Amino acid sequence: MNSVSKPIRKKDAMQLVTGKPVYTDDLAPENCLIVKLLRSPHANAMIEHIDVSKALLVPGVEAIYTYLDIPKGSRRFTCAGQTYPEPSPYDRLLLDKHVRFVGDPVAILAGTDEKALQRAMKLIKVEYKVLPAVLDFRTAKDNPVLVHPEADWESLCPVGADNRRNLCAHDECGSGDIEGVLASSDIVIDRVYHTKACQQTMMEPFATFCTIDAYGRLNVVSSTQIVFHCRRIIANALGIPKTMIRVSKPRIGGGFGAKQTSVSEIYPAFVTWKTKKPSKIVFTREETQTASSPRHEMELHVRLGATKEGIVRAIDLYTLSNTGAYGEHGPTTVGLSGHKSIPLYGKAEAFRFVTDVVYTNVMSAGAYRGYGATQGLFAVESAVNELAEKLGIDPFVLREKNIVKEGDVMPAYYGETLTSCALDRCLQKVKEMIGWEQKGQVRSVGENRVRCLGMGMAMQGSGISGVDVGGATLRLGEEGIYLLSIAAADMGTGCDTTLAQIAAEVLDCSPDRISVFGADTDASPYDSGSYASSTAFVTGKATEKCALKLREKIETLGASLLGAERKDVTFDGEKVSYQDNFVTLSEIAAASMAGRGTLEVTECHTSPNSPPPFMVGACELEVDLETGEVEVVEFDAAVDCGTPLNPNLVRVQAEGGILQGIGMALYENIEYSEEGVARHNSLMQYKIPTRMDVGRIRVAIESSYEPQGPFGAKSVGEVVINTPLPAIADALSKAVGVRFTELPILPEQIALKKRFFRE
Amino acid sequence: MTVTIFLNGNKITEDVSPDETLLSFVRSHGCKSVKCGCETTNCGLCTVFLEDTPVLSCALLAVRADQKKVTTLEGLPKEAEEFGSFLADQGAEQCGFCNPGLIMNAIALFRENPHPSDEEIKRYLAGNLCRCSGYEGQMRAIKEFVRWRDSNEQRQ
Ligand code: FES
Ligand code: FES
């Protein structure tokens, strides 16, 4: 292969490293109105009275909107960017009389400068009727306090939602006789795990600007992963037709799923639609951390039955998920906690997976890399590690006995058959990389200091089977340059480049000959957007199909110019040849522009299944048992993402995902006060890993070949975050002698447990 | 207050409000490479040079730069491209949002300490957060760059 699998530079690389103005706030018109939100100080309250008259008098204030400006009878909507039929309940209004978390918008302010808006904000008089709030998600189901008591709350899909019970979703599935198999198992591990909400903390905060174009349409430029969903969400929020809206995204300063929810777009969209003036919103870091779309907090109860030889016979998982004040991604994230953890164990005779997703009065959760699989894998892999310890079997050996294999049907994975898998090689590789056998799992390195090893496995999907749509348009332009137009969103993932590599491979040219454009709802072909690990696999396949068709058209037109049949000509990327004659690509392009038929193709792709990528990770930690201080000396991982489309980009994605996972295991935590105020509201309190926090991260690629993927590729973006959680928890458990079941594992917990354990 | 700031070699004299940050000042003068990631001096995205010292422009008032030289990545296009291409070769620029701040600080590091050890690199750049990369790709790029620069110098 000439383009695919080559570690080429990203197409936008040099623009980015030279600091060019390519992000939303860099591009916003200078004179646009600034939009700010007045937010609720209460976790659950009714606005009894709101008076903005004084605030409107502040010079520089252009407009202030409250729930009174939202037409009565407006239909509720969701801000989750998902495909029809939308699983997330319609439970939001642009502004509501009922505010449901500390930070819920109460008023939208627009004005010429920030200071005027700050002053105006203080002059808005709001009288609240403060209501009791549901802050502990374990008490939410059937709590007398309802987060969504309103009659116009809607659930569009049969996801088991019931707002009268604070239920955003409920589901049950399984196969085999779970209770019977558990009862006859030699050993049952029975544990409850708890993972906290944590923030994507992409470096670019949420940002959007809006203008009205020459046709009177609303133009929205936003840092979003989902231009098409965004258009629908704005149409719903504003009650205007989608045809009146155009959404495009410039470069995105990181997303990780945060921008799969329309967090910021609807506010400036409303302002610009009302005032017909350009406006922008840029969230502060505080808003980005406290009023956004973090990972769902989950409690996971695992019962795992096995033989004494270590064969996993049954997995029973109950997951309780906290969706917060609104249901964005609530019904879907929870599913991954079981469907992307249980199938790793290919020999299990039975499984059961039951889920409840509850509303509470904290900020709404959303999509975060890993999307529920992260939480589920932490629980299931931790239980398997405990099983290994109890049986005295090496955790790697225990995995080798159990893992799913190519050709296996996976009952817990929607009944799909596994068509590519290098999990066995990943295990082997990581064991060598970390020096598992040489080092030993726990060793003393001084007084009260130990080095310890831990490991974990992970899987994810590649797009949502039968749902996600990838789209690509390819056009041959003058000079024989192609334009690839997409609506997948490169948010640092490099998909603009990897998709061009795919097209270039088919068209026998250098990726430099493919210009990439996207994403823009007016100009790009429909694509559900970049999430659910779909871009490489689903949009990648659409691109491959598209390039094949275009190739066919080029050959056909070339042949006709040569007076030949398509079957008799050859195309080498530069020219179409027939015997001793040829026409060049630019001659063909010129002919196509002179009435010989356009050389433009649009293809879309939906996959009936979602081939999982796999990863194995292992860590070496050094722990001070007295203070609980943990140093990550090394994290080694091997990933099976099918064919790596661009090994450089696979590697950096994996390294970055691992570090996020380490952050989640050891530091990152959204905590609320008793009143529901988020404590971790800045990067001072919310600690993401710095470069001082980790010794080294090493990643190996163990390729497989996925027959359904473009050139054998599967996804890689999400699976990489998952292994640090169980690996680190396992290493620490062995160091301290007590199982850790809650994340993050903070130094004080380690020190306390150690002390407690000693006594 | 009237200030005179030499921004990337251009003399700018104008009224600024006493609470305007240097970050907002440079951005409003077209230096969009300077980003805001936190407002609390924790992320390093807003790094600029005041005279020749890297500072966090979110925590510095514009008036403090009166009569001083301020440099952003826009003022160092050659160095940015030279070092930046090593990030690009690793794919380590990723989303790119943290890059200008990182590159500014890396340039400062190379000026102060042309042959930094791994530990010195980590310590010097500790305040430059990145959520995409896991820092490993950046480290590879820095080491490759130093190697390239040294072999270049030897040749000359
Ligand atoms: S914006 Fe200045 S350090 Fe983060
Ligand atoms: S590259 Fe995205 S934050 Fe550093």
User: Which CATH class of the largest domain in chain A applies here?
Assistant: Alpha Beta
Spatial gap, N to C terminus of chain A: 63 Å
Could you report the average pLDDT of chain B, rounded to the nearest whole number?
Answer: 97
Overall 3D shape of chain B: globular
CATH topology of the largest domain in chain A: Aldehyde Oxidoreductase, domain 4
What does this protein structure show overall?
The complex is a heterodimer of chains A (759) and B (156). Chain A is an alpha+beta fold and 759 residues long. Chain A folds into three domains: 24-131 and 206-282, Alpha-Beta Complex (Aldehyde Oxidoreductase, domain 3); 297-462 and 610-758, Aldehyde Oxidoreductase, domain 4 (2-Layer Sandwich), CATH 3.30.365; 464-605, 2-Layer Sandwich (Aldehyde Oxidoreductase, domain 4). Helix content of chain A is 27%, strand content 25%. Chain A contains 19 helices and 30 strands. In chain A, strands 3-5-1-12-9-10-11 form a seven-stranded mixed sheet. In chain A, α6 (227-238) packs across α7, α10 (373-391) packs parallel to α18 (724-736) and α14 (495-507) packs parallel to α15. Chain A is globular. Chain B is an alpha+beta fold and 156 residues long. Chain B has two domains: 2-75, Ubiquitin-like (UB roll); 77-155, DNA polymerase, domain 1 (Orthogonal Bundle), CATH 1.10.150. Chain B has helices at residues 22-28, 77-90, 99-112, 118-124, 136-155, and strands spanning 2-7, 10-15, 47-50, 53-56, 68-71. Chain B has a five-stranded mixed sheet, covered by helices on one side. Chain B is globular, with a radius of gyration of 16 Å. The mean pLDDT of chain B is 97. The interface between A and B is large, with 57 and 53 residues. One FE2/S2 (inorganic) cluster (FES) sits between chains B (94-98, 130-133) and A (203, 254, 492).
